[in-house]
Structures are given as structure tokens and as C-alpha cells.
Amino acid sequence: MSMRKALGPILLALFVALCVTAMSGDVRAQTGGSTQAGDKDTRDDETNLDTQLYLIVATNQEVDDTKLPASLDGVIKQLRASLPFKNYRLAATLVNRVKNEGRLDLRWIGGPFVAPTSSASSGVTPSFSEFKVVRVKLARNGEGQQVVQMAGFSYGARIPIQTGTAIASNGPAAPIINYESTGLNTDISMREGEPVVVGTLNAGPSGDAIILVVSARRSQK
User: Fold this and answer.
1) What count of other Cβ atoms lies within 10 Å of the Cβ of residue 15?
2) Cβ neighbours for 101, distance < 8 A, ≥ 6 positions apart
3) Pair 147, 190: CB distance under 8 Å
């Protein structure tokens, strides 16, 4: 009987020690998991993406330079198979860096997208463009592949269109230019580093088209 009384406190002390050890292990595991999650969030916060926007003009007119970047070979092959244009030229390339889950907003002045319709045109009439993305985000698709999502992708342009010619009695004829707006708004998802066609826009009475191609990949530095 005295041995049972002596063993009782010892067994109770061992039970309490085991419970304390188990609870300490759970706390360390939870703390370690929180630290790992915090490290991952920090790494994600530090990730930047390099984006490329290509503006390609599709036309049936002869163009001076039809050379395009090698990275667009697959895209151009796809376009030639689906669109009835003879030539493609690169009108602009925009390279920008944006933070993961960040936004992008650009405005710029460029040359005309379409060739003048009259020999009376003189000088260069600019075009005005705007490119926005509400959020650029790294994600994974249903197959587990890394993709880049662009929510609120928006491109707009004001294109100069010659609508007539003003004939002066004592001077040369001058073109009459009106600006027409065109644009596109969408949400897209693409594989990282793979250029994709976002859409095509009519560029005026010439029948030319502006083709939007975009790609994005994680920055190396």
C-alpha cells in the first residue's frame, strides 16, 4: 500500500512533464510554420516582373522593315495563319518592370500607325497611346504551371486620320487631320515568358490593324 502511495506522485509528475513537452513542441512547430510563411510572403513581396508590350501593325501595304524580334516568331506564324495581311511591322516595344501584385500605367506619344493617304501630308502627325494594368500577379493554373495574371489590362490610342485636304489659294494644300480613338479592355492570364496575342484593333480606313502582344517573366535581378 505504501508503494502505491509512493508511485502515485511520480506517475503524475511524469504525465505532467510529457504534456508540457508536447505543448512546447506544438508551439515550436506553429512558430516555425509562421516563420516559414512569413519568409515566403517576404520573398513574394520582393518579386518583380519584367513586362513587354509589342505593338504590331498588320498591313497589306509595302513596308520598309519587316524584321521582327525572334521572340515573336511563333506569334507571327499564328497571325499569318489567321489574319489576311501581307506584312507585319513593329510599331513600338515597351519594356517595364513592375512589382508582383503591383500596377502599371504608361502614356506616350509616338509616330503614326498608318501611312499618310495623300502626298499632301507633310511632317509627322503623332499618335497618343495609353497602357494600363490594374494588377500584375504571379499564380499557378490548374496544371500547376507558373502563369502571370494581368487584371484590368487596358490599351487605348488616339490615331490621326486624314479626312480631307484643305486647298489654299496662295499656298500648298494641307491635310485635314482628325483624331479617332480605339482601345481594348480585358483580363488575361498567360504562361510566364510566353508572348500572347491580346487582341487586334482597327487602325482606320486604310484597313490596317494594330495587334497587341504581351509577355511577362520574373526579373533576374
Assistant:
1) 10
2) 44, 135, 136, 137
3) yes
- Residue identified by cell 525572334 is 70
Neighbour-count burial for 167-180, b at 16+ CB within 10 Å, e otherwise: eeeeeeeebeeeee
Give the cell for residue 59.
Answer: 498591313
The string of pLDDT tens digits covering residues 79-113 is 999 998 999 999 999 999 999 999 999 999 988 88
Classified as helix, coil or strand, 21 is helix
C-alpha cell at 66: 519587316
C-alpha cell recorded at residue 89: 511591322
C-alpha separations of 97 from 12, 18, 47, 217 in Å:
63, 54, 10, 10
175, 180, 176, 61: which is closest to 121 by C-alpha? 175
User: Cell numbers 509616330 label which residue?
Assistant: 111
Q: Residue 212 in contact with residue 158, Cβ under 8 Å?
A: no
Say if CB 156 and CB 182 are below 8 A apart.
Answer: yes
Q: What is the pTM of this model?
A: 0.73
User: In degrees, to the nearest 5, what angle opens at C-alpha 148 toward C-alphas 34 and 197?
Assistant: 175
